[in-house]
Amino acid sequence: MPPTPSQAQPTYTLVNNFEVVGPLKEYINYCKQNSERKGFFVKSETHHLLASKSIILPRTKTKEYESKAVVDDSIHAELTKLTRGVDGKSNRFTLKKELAKMYGKVTEDDQIILDIYFNCLNKLSNFKKTEEISEMELTTNYVDPVLSPKFHSPENNKHLIWLNRKEDNTEHLRPDAMMKRFHRKLFGTTLGYCEVKPPDAQKDVDSLCTDLIRLAILSRKLMLRKANHVVCSLQAVGKKFNIRNFPRHNHHE
Length: 253
What we know:
Layout: H1 21-37, H2 46-51, H3 64-68, H4 73-83, H5 92-101, H6 111-123, H7 135-151, E1 158-162, E2 177-182, E3 188-197, H8 205-223, E4 230-237, E5 240-247
Parallel strand pairs: 3-4
Antiparallel strand pairs: 1-2, 2-3, 4-5
Helix pairs in contact: 5-6, 6-7
């Protein structure tokens, strides 16, 4: 019998014609060998640790997401005018009535920013707090009002669920939240995960790296089960949000 032809290996070439699949595989194998020999320090070798799990995180930051998140100029001008000079003495009911008038002028996408403003008017305090904000307070009063208009859409059966417990795809790990699209009352597709840490956690680099590793591992496990091989996960530390999309580039691994 003639030999079975080997399956063509996937390639991925950068704009400068550099082929990256081969070097990445060598790097992953190198990290896996080091993982077995000596292990890694979480804080200083996060990328090596994740590479040993076949997860590659880019080291450079991208502003692609920021460049696309643009509100209509006229709506931006009205929001700026409405909120200029707002302080602890401002009447929130009056502000919400003015905000409500703008809904008839916006697109469905721009409606999200109005929903965020509404949520913040309902949740934020009149003054800047000097005491430490706990993770629970950060989640309920600061993070959820911003995230829910984007990731929580019951009309489309898409839900942002705060759980801090295991779910079907996480085994023993406990993400703070997950994004899920329900097909029926009890069944759905998990879209991604979220980890939240209060502002003072910025000093605890080990904890932040552990959260990032947990998100990456959870996302890879979920990605391998999904038909489109894409997972969106988010890490929030105080007022800083880091949204990561985890695509599967090599379908043959």
